[in-house]
Amino acid sequence: MPALRVGFLLSGPMRKPLLVAARSTSLNLMSPRRRTIAAVLVGLGALVYGISPIDIIPELLTGPIGLIDDGAVWVGAALGIWKLLSGRNRPPETTAS
Q1: Is 22 helix (H, G, I), strand (E, B) or coil?
Q2: Considering the domain boundaries, does residue 68 fall inside one?
Q3: pLDDT tens figures, 53-88
Q4: What is the distance between the alpha carbons of residues 84 and 81, in angstroms, rounded to a whole number?
Q5: Nearest CA among 49, 36, 38 for reference residue 75
């Protein structure tokens, strides 16, 4: 079963965000090599954000509380990497038309 992807669309005359859900098959269509490359890039991005002096909550001003956003990025990256690599050995799913 494909994963459920949640996103925002702008709709209506005032262009208010509309929360929508759509079935995502993009992960199932990625080759194992592409999944590995994507996982490495996600990990590098999280690492760069963690050691960068530019943060949402800077450590210099808030002390240890500033590590909360770094931890959230690392946990999110770990979950993303796990999701990318968990189906790496499975062949891509084909959709019946």
Answers
A1: strand
A2: yes
A3: 888 888 888 888 888 888 999 999 999 999 999 876
A4: 5
A5: 49
